Amino acid sequence: MKIIDWAIIFVLLATPVLWILQLHTGDVREGHRLQVRYTTALHVAVQDAASALNLNELQQYETGYGSVKYMRTDKDQALSAFIQTLSINFGIVDDYLSQGTMMAYIPAIVIIEYDGYSAYAVDLSAEGSNMSKFSHRWRPKKPYVYMDEYGNSIAFTLDDAITAYESSTGQWYRGKMDELQQETNIPLLQDARTFDQVRRFTIINSIQDDLAGYMNRHNEHAMRLGVNYTFTLPTLSQEDWLNTLNDVGVLVFLQGIPVGSSYYNNYAFGGGRVVQNRPLIGGVDDITGLKYQYREMCTQRYRGEQIFANRRDAAAKGYYEIVCP
């Protein structure tokens, strides 16, 4: 055979392969774009929700009651801010049907409070005698409670303030751990290092156990809606768990949204403490044309276009939050 014949055969064989590879590359590129978009939208919405936690109207409800970590929280206000911002970023702010569909991919929203946690998740509610349905609702706030082998119980907080019950005397105590060491014989209060380890483990384990149950219940709900995805509790990094124990805040899981040939699975935590932020810049990536919002100290600089006071205003203008290293 002549060289030209071999060339024709090669082209005939290679063209379908190259075409398939091109399609796959396009799917991967689109999947990555969606991953970035959803992650940015999730982080912005969670930060707005966390900020809304402490928008208290009355001065006597502001931070400062015995602990720098104490803060009166407004769960409904935080939930409303989260849904509003996420809907803006998803382009469904006025589409309540689509917002309902969006909630099918959010198995749990957890509010980490100073002395306990609350979760917004699906639950089975009865309607009449023969009908029931799943709906999102706030679960009752649960304290961070630990009980030892002697029947002593301790309700932890995000710092060393506790409420303790001593089974041998039937007495209740309330105060700082080091202050109660001399007043009670509860073993855990006699060692500060062990106390802190048990406190952290109790808080993390309590939240994880409940989240696993919420995920299972959400799977039943999602199945009824035709969502072909199994919701599971992802492994949170040690840094993220430490962040949840250092501040009142919001923890949200977003899972199961199709992105190319895979599914989106992520979570975000936002602290509710008020901080003084540097200017927020809205810039454009000249390569992709995507718009991002970032702080001045961000090394991933884009072509700056606008200055915003907060993330919500930037998100409303179509700027996605970029996570800087």
TrEMBL record:
Q: Which UniProt keywords apply?
A: Membrane, Transmembrane, Transmembrane helix
Regions crossing the membrane: 6-23
Instruction: Report what the protein is called.
Output: F0F1-type ATP synthase
Q: Which organism is it from?
A: Paenibacillus lentus
Taxonomic path: Bacteria, Bacillati, Bacillota, Bacilli, Bacillales
